[in-house]
Amino acid sequence: xxxAKRIIPCLDCDKxxxxxxxxxxxxxxxxxxxxxxxxxxxxxxxxxxxLDITASHEARDTTVDTVSAIAGQVFIPLTVGGGIRSLDxxxxxxxxxxxxxAINTAAVTNPEFVRQAAERFGSQCxxxxxxxxxxxxxxxxxxxxxxxxxxxKPTGLDAIDWVKRMVDYGAGEILLTSMDRDGxxxxxxxxxxxxxxRAVQVPIIASGGVGNLEHLxxxxxxxEADAVLAASIxxxxxxxxxxxxxxxxxxxxxxxxxxxxxD
Amino acid sequence: xxxxxxxxxxxxxxHSVAKAVEHVARESGQTVEVTVSADPAxxxxxxxxxxxxxxxxRDCMAEIRRLDVGQMVxxxxxxxxxxxxxxxxxxxxxxxxxxxxxxxxxFLKGQVKYFGSDLTDAAGQRLKVPHMGWNQVRQQTGHPxxxxxxxxSRFYFVHSYYVDDVDADKVTGVSEYGQQFVATLAxxxxxxxxxxxxxxxxxxxxxxxxxxxxxxxR
Lengths: 263, 218
What we know:
The complex is a heterodimer of chains A (263) and B (218). By secondary structure, chain A is an alpha/beta fold. Helices cover 35% and strands 26% of the residues of chain A.
């Protein structure tokens, strides 16, 4: 009896389609976001994260419509990220049916935005997404830096300090992506995850690098993550969510099993 | 026609609640009119009322007082089924520790307390706050809103404060997070949940469906 560790499929969307880039380059189509969300929800996903990777102004309306369509069909928490830059953007997404928003670049550009957002909408709906990359030289103590723009732009910010600051400002949850691992299928950066999870009191979602079910379990057991996020292993049917839950349960991790179907 | 009013006092996302109620009605073939409003007349003419709430209690209580939402809830509690969700449940209590101490509506006996920054589970593992995610609810009594929901089902929670010092006979469900805490309460024609039924998939939708059919008796 206790809180379950969450499995969160992530939908990276470009112009209304689910895609998955390997290291943000080679983009593969993985379907209609509403259908995909519904399928994951029915399969027992604990939340859905929707990241709009187009985030150009023209595409915003499509995104709002998509979020609204997902929210009308999926009755589990829905986080929306990508291009969230103002209180109005947050309000628009919450009104469309999102439960939380993920703020990434805008937090780096203007950290006070996170504070204002948490004060206005409550910490429970403010997720700060951080993209961290290992920057220590070989033989040095591990050190990670925050990057923006899909991992292309260094910020000079130390990842641990940054996450602590974001939590002080009111972030209710941290979506932590290892830029070294994202798209590689080599597993999470467990050391990064553990360091961040121990540094703050709020839940951590581990992201970046999942290639098999063992990686998900490691994220919780060694990375000390509260939730694990994955995209391609689910999108391309390499593994199903029930398989992931069964595997984690077998490793002694508390997970939410779906109630028996009434059909 | 079953009229459901969701009280809108400007705090957070009521669309999830409205969408979930509409979905449940559609799936069960009922005609339900869902209104999201802070207009006392709209609340008064509804057959049942949902009192939601998210965010910080100080801001919630400020808006509740400004819009006289307390009066709407009190009137509804006298005459029709009421479902209070999350901070809506907390607002019914006497007092909350959040934001340095906030007086609440005092419609039910109880105090709202912080989980604490040094919370641990039985094995001594540190527990994160907010309590966020799917936790089991142990049903303490039978209730029409529990119909068709297996005991120890998991519901979706997100909160850092919990209600305590309530009348024991009003507790209908409990959960564990470092300690046992009140997950649901029932008093007369009110049912209150710390979790979010609108985000709790099958079991949450079942609870909402039960609410649509509930006449307010136990």
